[in-house]
Amino acid sequence: MAKINLRPWREELRAEKQKQFVVMIFGAAIIAGGLAFLWKSDMDGRIAYQESRNAYIETATKQLDQQIKEIEDLKRKRDELLARMRVIQDLQGKRPVIVRVFDELVRTLPDGLYYTDLSKTGERLSIVGMSESNSRIASLMRRFEDSEWFTNPNLSNVASADSRRAGYSQFNLTVQQKTPEPEKGDE
């Protein structure tokens, strides 16, 4: 006898294949979700790692900026100290010069003449004085010309003095100070 299958096997096969398809879709979705979760976790980890590196670089940069500021402060203080040292050395070097200048002012001063005011601006010395005669002023100017510490005397004014100093003339004189070559005993 012939066997006839009257069961709806095609519908069952189709239903079975649909179930398998749904399971495979669901499985693929779970795998895709898992892969997406792993990818996102990896990216979050990388972002966190990069942010920690950026924070480290920022703190290191702040420390370097602070060190640079300290170095600049130290350089500024060093420059100030060097400037002070130069001023002190300059003053130490000029201390004997001013003594010699005053000594030379006394040596060039002729009798019958005296100074009432001295002022110095740079290398120019302004002198106001009183003299018994104009010839004594001329003698003073010649002595300044012959001096090794002064040059270019310039007489700007000669006037007779007030009634308290009868017979005296007031004069205004400017002279350039020059620094002579140091002698062997000066060093």
- Roughly how much helix do the residues carry, as a percent range? 55-70%
Could you give the order of the helices and strands?
A: HEEHEE
Provide the low-confidence segments as ranges: none
**What kind of sheet is the major sheet?**
4 strands, antiparallel
Strand sequence of the main sheet, in spatial order? 1-2-4-3
- Rg, nearest Å: 52 Å
Tally of discrete structural domains: 2
Structural class: alpha+beta
User: Which band does the percent of strand residues land in?
Assistant: 15-25%
Shape: rod-shaped
Number of E-type strands: 4
**Overall residue-averaged pLDDT value:** 86
Oligomer: single chain
Distance between the termini: 146 Å
Q: Helix count?
A: 2
Coiled coil: 57-91
Transmembrane segments: 21-39
Keywords: Coiled coil, Membrane, Transmembrane, Transmembrane helix
InterPro entries: Extracell_DNA_Util/SecSys_Comp, PilN
